[in-house]
Task: inverse folding
């Protein structure tokens, strides 16, 4: 009887522990895995689930089994989008907004900024990036292994090509954790193979964070021969972009350039096959229900005829433009059992929101000291709750012409597109205002009907631009005179041990003088990094 009593007590204790575990947040289910897949220059209309002639069964399956984010916004070019994704902060603050990080650039995202994988690492996650980095390459502190990633396989730059030799401006650019590797095969498939192998060989006792930024379908386009043949007869029936790119397209047609649409379609399907291999790896490991998968494009498709080949219909414009076609992109999120399949989020979500949203979904802290510009959209995704954000969302671009900018400020209802042309002795500014909630195609310019709104939103853009570091990225698309690229980009980053411990900000000899010089520069840009100017004091930085 006594032994039976003890056994009964043990059973009740076990039952009590089960009950406590179910009721206590601290003893909840294991943290979810996170997989972020990013396409490069994918058009809004190009996935099969949008009615495209391109076969994308893997992306379509994500749409059917997850939630579509039809108002997901990114920067109109890639480095700013990637910087915002990794930090949850506006790329204007980071100095990575107007242009991409080019091979001859020595900077990147400030080493004092906190990256999303660092927070996941601190929460016990194993982390990996497989693909394109494009956030800094001159110093080791700017590269993936120093920014929260345990494992890095891929390339530091863009446009390395889809077949060997993988190179940028002539220098080899394919590596594994800082060591150059000689890889044979199609780049997109190589990334999928590495990602799948990493998933299979991971520590199965710990959750993981995997970031897969594909080069596809960015130029220079290439695809396996069977896919090239499959789409060889595809007609280019895309409507005009209704943007400055149409002028370049007309010129390209007059010179006899052929459409890139067929080759683009083949490159997109190859990427979809690679995505399928990653999703299959999750299924093979029986962790689909334990894994959040987020997919989106880093910007809209290029709409210049003879280059790219994507379709952003019914949206206006494309890559490098702040019309909807350049910044509103395909985006899907899946977590079976937690996110309603086949649903659509009717709210604006931005790339800055990804970090706080995924951290919230995983139940981890965002550990950076600086305030995030993104907001936590998990309540909206999980429960349909309305999430409010303060003020406007801003994006801008100077690529490809130095001194030629286009900016935007928008909220759920209104959107202003601002064009700024800086010529040697004059500056021209034009505005287009859209009721974006009713006119997502940006057909009707309401600027003349609402001059007060235009003025107020233009002033907000000016204040936003004043946050930009004075030496941030610009459209410097040619190398400095006499600059020589390395033979191998894996050898290029300067070891941190050879550098001074503290970053330098300016030539000002003292901190007070730096603040004074920053104030004198005014809206031209910031000397003091991460400055929050006080408007009523004329833009002086808070010390």
Result:
């Amino acid at each position: 009887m006594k032994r039976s009593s003890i056994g009964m007590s043990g059973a009740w204790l076990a039952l009590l522990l089960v009950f406590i575990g179910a009721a206590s947040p601290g003893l909840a289910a294991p943290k979810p895995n996170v997989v972020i897949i990013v396409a490069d220059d994918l058009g809004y209309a190009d996935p099969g689930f949008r009615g495209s002639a391109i076969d994308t069964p893997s992306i379509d399956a994500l749409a059917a089994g997850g939630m579509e984010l039809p108002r997901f916004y990114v920067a109109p070019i890639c480095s700013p989008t990637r910087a915002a994704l990794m930090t949850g902060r506006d790329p204007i603050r980071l100095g990575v907004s107007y242009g991409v990080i080019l091979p001859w650039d020595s900077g990147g995202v400030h080493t004092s900024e906190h990256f999303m994988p660092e927070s996941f690492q601190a929460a016990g996650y194993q982390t990996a990036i497989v693909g394109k980095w494009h956030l800094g390459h001159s110093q080791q502190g700017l590269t993936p292994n120093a920014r929260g990633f345990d494992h890095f396989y891929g390339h530091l730059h863009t446009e390395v090509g889809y077949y060997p030799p993988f190179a940028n401006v002539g220098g080899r650019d394919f590596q594994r954790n800082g060591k150059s590797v000689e890889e044979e095969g199609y780049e997109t498939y190589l990334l999928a193979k590495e990602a799948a192998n990493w998933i299979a060989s991971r520590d199965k006792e710990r959750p993981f964070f995997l970031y897969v930024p594909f080069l596809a379908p960015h130029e220079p386009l290439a695809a396996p021969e069977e896919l090239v043949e499959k789409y060889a007869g595809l007609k280019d029936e895309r409507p005009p972009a209704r943007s400055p790119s149409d002028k370049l397209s007309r010129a390209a047609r007059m010179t006899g350039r052929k459409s890139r649409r067929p080759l683009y379609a083949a490159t997109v399907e190859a990427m979809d096959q690679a995505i399928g291999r990653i999703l299959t790896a999750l299924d093979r490991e029986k962790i689909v229900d334990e894994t959040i998968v987020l997919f989106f494009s880093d910007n809209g498709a290029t709409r210049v005829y003879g280059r790219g080949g994507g379709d952003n219909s019914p949206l206006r414009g494309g890559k490098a433009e702040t019309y909807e076609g350049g910044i509103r992109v395909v985006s899907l999120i899946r977590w079976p059992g937690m996110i309603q399949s086949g649903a659509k989020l009717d709210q604006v979500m931005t790339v800055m929101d990804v970090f706080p949203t995924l951290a919230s979904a995983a139940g981890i802290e965002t550990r950076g000291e600086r305030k995030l510009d993104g907001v936590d959209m998990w309540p909206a995704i999980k429960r349909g709750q309305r999430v409010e954000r303060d003020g406007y969302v801003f994006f801008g671009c100077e690529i490809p012409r130095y001194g030629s900018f286009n900016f935007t400020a928008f909220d759920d209802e209104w959107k202003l597109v601002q064009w700024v042309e800086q010529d040697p002795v004059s500056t021209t500014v034009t505005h287009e205002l859209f009721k974006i909630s009713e006119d997502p195609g940006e057909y009707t310019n309401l600027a003349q009907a609402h001059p007060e709104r235009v003025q107020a939103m233009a002033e907000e853009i000016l204040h936003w631009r004043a946050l930009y570091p004075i030496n941030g990225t610009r459209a410097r698309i040619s190398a400095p005179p006499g600059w020589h690229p390395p033979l191998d980009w894996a050898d290029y980053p300067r070891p941190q041990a050879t550098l001074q411990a503290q970053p330098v900000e300016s030539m000002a000899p003292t901190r007070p003088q730096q603040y004074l010089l920053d104030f004198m520069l005014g809206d031209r840009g910031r000397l003091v990094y991460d400055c929050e100017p006080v408007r009523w004091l004329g833009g002086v930085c808070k010390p």
